[in-house]
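pinging the channel bc i need a second pair of eyes. not urgent but kinda urgent?? the chain im working w is below, pasted from the shared doc
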Amino acid sequence: MNVKDFAQGNVLFKDVYFKKHEDELLELANQGQAPKALFIGCSDSRVVPDIILQTKPGDLFVVRNVGNFVPPHKVDDGFHSTASAIEYAVSVLNVNDIIICGHSDCGAIKHLFAPKPPQEQPLTYINNWLKLAQRAKSMALVSLGKDAKETDILRTTEKLSIITQLDNLMTYPEIKKRLDDETLYIHGWYYDVLSGNIDYYDPETFQFVPLESKK
């Protein structure tokens, strides 16, 4: 696809979808948003929240980044994109739920294990960002052993990363407060790009369980 295709897509959106849902979209435009959940997902082009969940405009407040990572709470003068989105969702929009959704075949997790060529152009921002998944990588290697199949190590690291990002969420004071007050709930999901299935992390069994079992 190129820019002309995107332009044509917008025309189609305005002529078909917008006209069909004009009342709801104008209500959102005039009254403002009130999403019930914050969705923290990966920037991967195959993981599109509104498609995989069949949600509508106004349902989700979405932040996407490389690897669906959550930096630990830290107060300084840096530019904290993901942290600011979390703060806005929790303290301004008052969402009821936060979903961290990882996925299979994640490029960020692959990069953790990729050999670094001697003359590789340094990926300054990415390599620093991937430190947020190092604990998951270490846990996977300890759990499975370095001689385990590569695919098993990658899939395990992807899931363990979701759990460690949930731990990072707990470092935000307002999140901890609202969890204690039972006005906020956090969830770890794993999306399989090959099947479309989503599993959720059950902290009581320490297992990922099919999300459809919650229906």
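so Residues 150-169 form the longest helix (20 residues). and The chain has a mean pLDDT of 95. — does that match what u expected or am i reading it wrong
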